[in-house]
Structure formats: structure tokens, C-alpha cells
Design brief:
It contains 12 helices and 34 strands. By secondary structure, the chain is of the alpha+beta class.
Length: 704
């Protein structure tokens, strides 16, 4: 883009050398260091029972410094529905042993109705779950080993628990570290995005459906195990039905959201990763909205704690957490609050492929957010071009294929079983089916940090229509890397409560923020905006194919350009380290496969995913666990009503001759007017089926 020449300004040779040295330090591959010896000895209690006012007991695992009874300590709490006893035991040991070894009581709590805890889990983890957490905070503060102070840490569900607890402002809660979290589960996460129904929510619903079928361990809860198990099964309800009954942004979602950040009274350290795009915006929203001390950290990672981050580089996240909690709960003058509030990974020259081990780039730092280091740069859409000045008016029409989006990767890259094709691949195939607007080759590097914003002047020919917009980095060889994106349901143009049908042919001016990102476009590369009305399998298709008319004269792109003259920030984090994981015997190795099949005759595309967690044995308790899931998504080109999603999940638990198995399945299809949900659950004790139930529901489409 010739007119961008000189925009960055000259960079002296000494500064360029500093940048090069910084990049080399940032690109070193991170290797996890396992810590065996700690400053303090501690004792692990497998089941610490916490009584609640209604008679329910919650099961927690507690790691307690051996001197805590003589010298009470602060506590770090993590709250999850994911079974401390087996599923998360190895990972929990790495985190909570580490904290205990550095002088904290550290606790992992199974929520009501999960793991070995009594009761039945709330079907969207809301008021009852939050009330329980507040009771647990009180209980901890009253223990003789507690100094009355509690910090909370958590990722995903655990991060949501932390931010929700802070929203309730309990006096015991002194600081939190929520990671990959959703203060509003409608705006962020795995359910809806921009009012569009995310297909990932069907998988997530099946996953939770299966999780709720799992029994407690008879060795820990005794003869009550069967009653507890049957109680869980009897109260099962597929979450997907609840989601689809609330397609607009209604009170259902507001009641489950942090709606007033001023109610948060404790310091917040918000964390996420660029690859975890469905959650990363929550970091910036929280930073802008809270009235308490805060910090923000965004790395290159997917949906993982940062000390195990993929893509790397992973960082010393547990050391950073110690500094945060040490400052706020131990009074340690460790300098953490003297440092910049924001640290973000500035990715550069990232490969356009579905998996890579490390993201090229470097760390950048900002003293505040929003930051004066970032200013908007306006580009205008002209036919096929992004230009620095508006052009003459043109109308561009497109009907994008139903299967556009196959290179979009997973909504929430997780890499649960190691390397897998979960990241966005080369976008050229999807770009070729979209309306694309390219800049000229850049004369020099251009860095963006924050949320790009696209203004579009459009019309459509259907009452329900979606927009998918991708910002891509096009290399000189033609490869196209998705930098960030946005999806938007146009029936939500006025807020989405209720969704408002469009008038075919009427022109609308839409302002569309893209998901926040940190990215450096290299000299010689092009910036591309790709616009489509479909993005499968990320979102469920609209009821009918849509013709989009885009009017270029009223359409523009604003990029959050970061000042290139800033000196590079020092590498701010230590190398990753953690305690040793809990030992278990792997009896069968798991893995994940994602395959795409096409039938040219039927014009059908099928995506099949197998997720095998393998089989392992918890040696210390003689407990075997095995799980396996399958996902199948299909769509016939030109027929959005052919879309089908079917997910199954199997769990098996064994000890000696005792065996329990559960099988869950959810299938979703649609007509022009309705979603159709079919779900089944079967539970076995040995070879005998002891429980079976099916759920069938037809739910009206509400602008989706």
C-alpha cells in the first residue's frame, strides 16, 4: 500500500538490533520444568468434605502446608465440575501442589452433583452454584489453618466461577485470576456469537450431558454411591434444549452474566490466548470495565493454562500467579503492580496451517487499556481492493456456498491430546468463495493490537441472514492466514431482544467489531477482508441461501494500529514450571482425529471427529477410567436444511469386577421454522442396563 510508506517512521539500527534480539529470546521453545523440591512441605487430603446449609456435602481435594496449623496461610481455590478424583487429577496435582509448596493452602472443589460431591448439578451452573461457592469461601475462612484470605484461579468454567464469585463481592475473596473465561456466556464462549448459533455448543452440550452421568467413587462415598448416581441420571436434561429455547439475548442470559463490573471489589488478573478467540475478548472487556486494580495477559495459546500453552511459547504462569496472590494476600513487594498492566503476544509471520508448535512473534506491553499507543487507521472498500481513500459507489453481489468455512479450524482449539489440526488453515479455498478486498503490498511492517472494526452498507434477499468476516494476512506466495474474524446475525442489528427479521432489499449500515488480536503484517504482505454469508461448521446455516449486496461507498475498515516506534518490551515471564503430575498407568493411548469427506455426486460434505481419551488406571486407588467421543457434521451444498450434527460420548469406570458405563448422544437437525433435538442416555452396571431415557424436542427458530 504505497501511501502507507513512512507511516511507521524510521527505526534506528540500534533499535532494530534490540528488536531482533528480543524476537530471538521470545522464540525459544519453552520446556516445562518439573519441580520436585519446594520451600515448604505439605500434606494432600483426597476428600475434604465441606457442609452446606441445605445438608449437601461438597468434595474437595486440599493441599495444606504442614506449618499452616501453627501459622495460618491464605488459600487458592479452583472450582470445577470436572472430577478432581480422576479426570483432572494429574493436571490438578501440577497446579495445586505447586501452590502448596510455596506456602498456600490450595483447594480443588467439585461442584454440587459432580465427582464425589452430593446433590444434582444446576443445568447451567448459575445461582445455586454461585451460592455454594460463597459458602465454601466462608468455610475456608473459618478453618484454623486459614488466615481468612482466599484467592480464586480457574480456566474456562473455573474462570467463570472466579469472575462470578467476585461479582458477588464476598469479603473473603481478595484476588482472582480468571483464564479463558466468559463474564457473559452469550457474548463469549461456546454457545452464540454475534447472535449466531455455534455448532460447537452441540458438542459442549453432549460433553456436559455425559459428564453428568458419571458416578461417584463407591470407595469414597460408600453404599450411597448408587443412590447418588441414580439421582444424577434422573435429573438429566440436555443443555442444548435450554440453549435453543433462548436464542436471543434475554433475561435468561443476563441473569447468568456479570452485568455490572463495578460490583467487583477484588483485584483481577485476566488471562487468555489469541488462538482461543471465542474467549479472548473477555480480557479486554474486563480490563475496561472494572474499577479495581487489574492486569491483563494474552498469549498465543488456545484454551489452556499458559504454563502448558499451545501454540507456544508457554510461560511461567504459575510463577506469575504466585506473584499476583503474593502481592494481594501476603503483602509481598514483588513489583508486579509496578509493571505494565497489559502484556500481549504480537504474532508475526504465523504459518497458514492447522497446527504449529510455536507462534512467531514477541511480547509487547501497555501501561493501560485502551492505550494511546494504538490509533485507528481507516481503509475503504472498493471492488476487490482496500484503499486509503473512498472510491466511486459499486454494488457487489454474492451467494456464498453453504460449505464455506472448512478452513476455519475449531471454535475453541484445546489440544487436549496433543498436536491436532484445530487451528485455522490456509484460507485460500474459503477466500475464493467470498467477497474479498485486498490492500496493495505493504511497504513496511504494520502492527495491530485490539479489535478491528468493519462498517458495511449492505442489503440481503432473506429475512434471516448472517455475516462472516475474516481479516487475513496474504503472503507473497498467495497463502492466506486468518488473523481474526467476526460473525453476526443481522436479525440482531438492534440488540437481539427480540431478533428482528430483515426486509429483503432494504439497505442497512452495520458496524461490526472483529475479535481482538495482536498481529504484525510484514512488508510485502497484503491485508485482506473476506465477506461471506455462511461459515460452516462454525455456525448453523440460515434457513435459506442468502444473496448479499454490498455497497462499497459506505463500507470501510478501521485497523487498531500500534505505534511502531515503541521500544521492545523486555521478555516479562519466566520459563514454565509446575509440580509433578499425579502418577497413573496409561493402559491405552488416546488421540484425536479430524477428517473431512466429500461426496461429489450428492454434493455432501461430512466432518468426522474422534476424540479418544484412552484408558488409564489411578494406581493409588485402583480406579480405571476410559472415555471416547465421536462427532459427525454433514451438509449438502445448496441445502442449508440438510445440516446435521450428531455427537456421542462414552464413559467407563472400573475397579476389579465392578464396572459402570454411560453412553450419551445428541442429534440436532432443522427445518425452515424449527430446530429438532434428539438425545438419549443409557447407563450400565456391569452388563445390565440400569437406566435409559430419551429426549425429543422441537424448538422454534428465533432469527437463527
Amino acid at each position: 500500500m504505497s501511501s502507507l510508506r513512512g507511516f511507521r517512521g524510521a527505526i534506528g539500527a540500534e533499535r532494530e538490533t534490540a528488536r531482533r534480539d528480543h524476537r530471538e529470546r521470545s522464540r525459544r521453545k519453552s520446556v516445562m520444568k518439573i519441580i520436585e523440591e519446594f520451600p515448604q512441605s505439605f500434606t494432600e487430603t483426597e476428600d475434604c468434605w465441606i457442609p452446606l446449609p441445605d445438608g449437601i456435602r461438597l468434595a474437595a481435594k486440599l493441599w495444606l502446608p504442614d506449618t499452616a496449623m501453627q501459622k495460618p496461610v491464605p488459600t487458592i481455590l479452583e472450582v470445577l465440575p470436572y472430577r478432581k478424583h480422576d479426570q483432572y487429577a494429574p493436571r490438578d496435582a501440577q497446579v495445586h501442589r505447586y501452590f502448596a509448596g510455596h506456602g498456600y493452602a490450595s483447594m480443588r472443589l467439585d461442584i454440587r452433583g459432580s465427582g464425589d460431591s452430593d446433590g444434582v448439578q444446576d443445568n447451567f451452573g448459575m445461582v445455586q452454584e454461585q451460592d455454594d461457592t460463597l459458602e465454601v469461601l466462608k468455610w475456608i475462612a473459618d478453618q484454623p489453618w486459614s488466615d481468612g484470605q482466599v484467592g480464586m484461579i480457574g480456566i474456562s468454567w473455573g474462570g467463570f466461577q472466579a469472575i462470578q464469585a467476585a461479582f458477588r463481592a464476598p469479603p473473603e475473596l481478595k484476588a482472582i485470576i480468571p483464564a479463558s473465561f466468559a463474564p457473559d456466556r452469550y457474548e463469549y464462549g461456546q454457545v452464540f456469537r454475534g447472535g449466531c448459533f455455534l455448532i460447537r455448543s452441540i458438542r459442549w452440550s453432549t460433553q456436559l450431558f455425559g459428564y453428568k452421568t458419571r458416578p461417584p467413587d463407591p470407595m469414597l462415598v460408600g453404599e450411597e454411591w448408587r443412590r447418588m448416581w441414580m439421582d444424577r441420571l434422573e435429573h438429566l436434561e440436555p443443555l442444548i434444549g435450554m440453549i435453543l429455547r433462548n436464542q436471543g439475548y434475554s433475561d435468561f442470559w443476563r441473569e447468568r452474566a456479570v452485568t455490572d463490573f463495578s460490583r467487583i471489589k477484588c483485584p483481577v488478573y485476566a488471562v487468555s490466548g489469541w488462538a482461543d478467540a471465542s474467549y479472548v475478548g473477555s480480557v479486554f472487556k474486563t480490563a475496561q470495565a472494572v474499577n479495581v486494580p487489574w492486569k491483563a495477559l494474552v498469549g498465543p495459546w488456545g484454551h489452556r493454562y499458559a504454563h502448558t500453552g499451545i501454540p507456544g511459547p508457554a510461560i511461567g504462569f504459575l510463577q506469575e500467579a504466585r506473584r499476583w496472590f503474593g502481592y494481594w494476600m501476603k503483602g509481598e513487594e514483588n513489583g508486579i503492580m509496578d509493571e505494565p498492566k497489559v502484556h500481549a503476544w504480537m504474532a508475526e509471520d504465523v504459518p497458514a496451517q492447522a497446527f504449529y508448535v510455536e507462534s512467531p512473534g514477541r511480547w509487547v506491553a501497555e501501561r493501560d487499556w485502551p492505550t494511546p499507543s494504538v490509533s485507528p487507521r481507516l481503509l475503504y472498500l472498493q471492488p476487490g481492493r482496500l484503499a486509503e481513500s473512498p472510491g466511486s459507489s459499486a454494488q457487489l453481489d454474492v451467494v456464498t456456498p453453504q460449505t464455506l468455512g472448512l478452513e476455519g479450524g475449531e471454535l475453541m482449539p484445546w489440544f487436549l491430546h496433543g498436536p491436532a489440526a484445530e487451528l485455522p488453515g490456509d484460507q485460500r479455498a474459503d477466500d475464493g468463495k467470498s467477497l474479498c478486498f485486498d490492500s496493495d503490498p505493504l511497504d513496511e511492517k504494520l502492527e495491530i493490537l485490539g479489535a478491528p472494526e468493519l462498517v458495511l452498507d449492505i442489503a440481503v434477499d432473506q429475512p434471516t441472514a448472517f455475516l462472516a468476516v475474516r481479516l487475513c494476512d496474504v503472503a507473497p506466495d498467495g497463502s492466506s492466514k486468518r488473523v481474526t474474524y467476526a460473525i453476526f446475525n443481522l436479525t440482531h442489528r438492534n440488540g437481539g431482544e427480540p431478533p428482528e427479521p430483515l426486509t429483503p432489499g432494504e439497505r442497512y449500515r452495520i458496524t461490526l467489531p472483529l475479535i481482538e488480536t495482536g498481529y504484525a503484517f510484514k512488508s510485502g504482505h497484503r491485508i485482506r477482508i473476506a465477506v461471506s454469508t455462511t461459515y460452516w461448521p462454525l455456525i448453523w446455516p440460515s434457513p435459506r441461501p442468502v444473496r448479499l449486496s454490498l455497497h462499497t461507498a459506505g463500507s470501510s475498515l478501521s485497523l487498531p494500529v500500534r505505534d511502531a516506534s515503541l521500544a521492545p518490551a523486555p521478555v516479562p515471564f519466566m520459563e514454565p514450571e509446575a509440580a509433578a503430575p499425579l502418577k497413573r498407568t496409561i493402559q491405552k493411548t488416546g488421540g484425536r482425529k479430524r477428517m473431512i469427506h466429500t461426496d461429489p455426486l450428492k454434493r455432501e460434505t461430512v466432518i468426522e471427529v474422534t476424540d479418544d481419551a484412552g484408558r488409564y488406571r489411578m494406581d493409588d486407588i485402583d480406579w480405571e477410567v476410559e472415555s471416547f467421543s465421536t462427532e459427525r457434521y454433514s451438509l449438502i451444498e445448496g441445502d442449508p436444511l440438510s445440516a446435521t450434527a450428531e455427537i456421542t460420548w462414552i464413559w467407563i469406570f472400573r475397579r476389579g469386577d465392578w464396572e459402570v458405563q454411560t453412553r450419551t448422544r445428541i442429534r440436532v437437525t432443522s427445518t425452515e421454522t424449527d430446530f429438532i433435538v434428539n438425545a438419549t442416555v443409557d447407563a450400565y452396571e456391569g452388563d445390565a442396563r440400569v437406566f435409559a431415557r430419551s429426549f425429543n424436542e422441537t424448538i422454534a427458530r428465533q432469527g437463527n
